[in-house]
Amino acid sequence: MNITYNALIEQVKSYHPGKYPITRNYTNGAVTNWSPYISRGLLSPVIVMEQLKTKFNKQEWMGFMQQMAWREYFQRVWQEKGNLILQDLKSTQSKVILESLPRPISEGNTGIQALDKAIHHLYAYGMMHNHVRMYISMLHSNIFKAAWLPGAKWMYANLLDHDPAANFLSWQWVAGSFSSKQYIANQDNINKYTNTKQRGTFLDREYEYLQTSIFDHLDTIQSNHSVNWPDPIDQKFEVDTMAIFKKIQQKNQSKILDINHVMPNKAFCIYNSFNLDPLWHADEELNRILLLEPNHFDQFPVTEKVLQFIIDLATTNIPGIQIFIGNFEELIKAIQTYPTSTKEETSQSENKKPVLYFKEHPTTQHYQGIQEARDWLFPEVTCYFPSFFGYWKKCERYLK
Ligand SMILES: Cc1cc2nc3c(=O)[nH]c(=O)nc-3n(C[C@H](O)[C@H](O)[C@H](O)COP(=O)(O)OP(=O)(O)OC[C@H]3O[C@@H](n4cnc5c(N)ncnc54)[C@H](O)[C@@H]3O)c2cc1C
């Protein structure tokens, strides 16, 4: 999934959004697969929409724009609510039986072919179609009746496009804690959108019986499942972030920040896993650092594959970028010791704090330096809306 920025822009230029609204729910629909680049901050949603608007009329790009606005909506909720997005936001998730991740889901062994295939695809490629994410999270939270957070963390860790706002808020939307009701789908619905023809599964039922298709009214697991599924049925999901960082450090040794390669008296651009913008201060001679903070990845763990994707995307597209594994304060300490050419400069640099640029984001609130804005499709619509539709109504006023 690594790509050069130029190749990505070519994809944007050749994309036709006309069929997007009517096909996007199908696994073979006209979706773009750009979310790993948009969420990593490599591809600006503003640039995408500018490109589409030069070639297509409003009717053709509108459906696509509305979906892009969902992403922006979630970002605004995150800005407003902060870490509360990790808890039930509007109402408590109803009827939780399992506190951890159901193993049939993490093992890709639910018996629903389209979903099992998608889970193995997620492990191999870090990608999953939006509608399948909804199916898996509804199966997890509303049929297995597992607390949504462990499932959300598991999916997040494996996604190249991992984004706390889009992820945790979508999981909450499906589980009914950030929406008015739980989302459920039966086998017919899954067959229709995933082009499968499976029958006779525990989801092959009328909607009214779906929510008791695994656990009966006494919260006992139905006997027909116990043959196929492990006991206990759920398992704690954990990622060993320390071990992953160790491996990543060894694998990428040549790209790790070498203080002797810092350009003296030049400012620093601080990138992170949400800002890999290759156009940011691109025509200036600056020090460029990809900051991978253990504190952040402890809170929002990702797999080694996903972390390596972030590094590959950064080093492919941002010339001269060096990696720093450590928290922001440690980076500051390290760069304050960067070498200068003369004695006089050394004493000057001791008194002078380096100039640092970074982009506004919920994960950069503890950075110090010069904060710059990120790109928004609707920079005017900043306030909190409890639902997407209120937000979108406001956005529509600014559509050109
Ligand atoms: C349970 C669940 C978890 C999710 N986790 C994430 C996540 O961690 N990171 C993430 O970026 N998206 C997440 N999404 C949203 C969505 O699934 C992905 O953005 C989408 O699959 C991206 O595929 P695409 O690039 O082909 O999108 P397209 O359909 O081509 O859409 C273009 C862009 O619009 C935005 N977009 C489209 N649909 C949505 C949506 N429903 N919500 C938010 N933005 C959207 C994305 O930036 C996407 O790249 C999640 C959705 C669900 C239901």
What would you note in describing this structure?
The protein has helices spanning 5-14, 20-23, 35-39, 45-55, 58-81, 103-106, 113-125, 130-143, 148-158, 164-175, 187-194, 207-210, 223-226, 241-251, 294-299, 304-317, 328-336, 343-351, 388-396, and strands at residues 101-102, 234-235, 268-271, 287-292, 322-325, 356-359, 370-372. It is globular. The chain has a 5-stranded parallel beta sheet with strand order 5-4-3-6-7. Strands 1-2 form a two-stranded antiparallel ribbon. The chain folds into 3 domains: 5-83 and 383-396, no CATH class; 101-235, DNA Cyclobutane Dipyrimidine Photolyase, subunit A, domain 3 (Orthogonal Bundle), CATH 1.10.579; 241-368, no CATH class. It has 400 residues and is an alpha/beta fold. It is 46% helix and 6% strand. The model has no long low-confidence stretch (mean pLDDT 94). The chain is built from 19 helices and 7 strands. The structure holds flavin-adenine dinucleotide. Flavin-adenine dinucleotide is lined by residues 24, 31-35, 38-39, 67-68, 70-71, 74, 129-130, 133-134, 137, 155-156, 159, 161-163, 166-167, 170-171, 174.
Structurally, the number of domains stands at 3
Strand content: 5-15%
Helix content: 40-55%
CATH level-four homologous superfamily name of the largest domain: DNA Cyclobutane Dipyrimidine Photolyase, subunit A, domain 3
Mean pLDDT across all amino acids: 94
Rg over CA atoms:
23 Å
Order of helices and strands: HHHHHEHHHHHHHHEHEEHHEHHEEH
| Name of the level-1 CATH class of the largest domain | Mainly Alpha
* General form: globular
**CATH architecture type of the largest domain:** Orthogonal Bundle
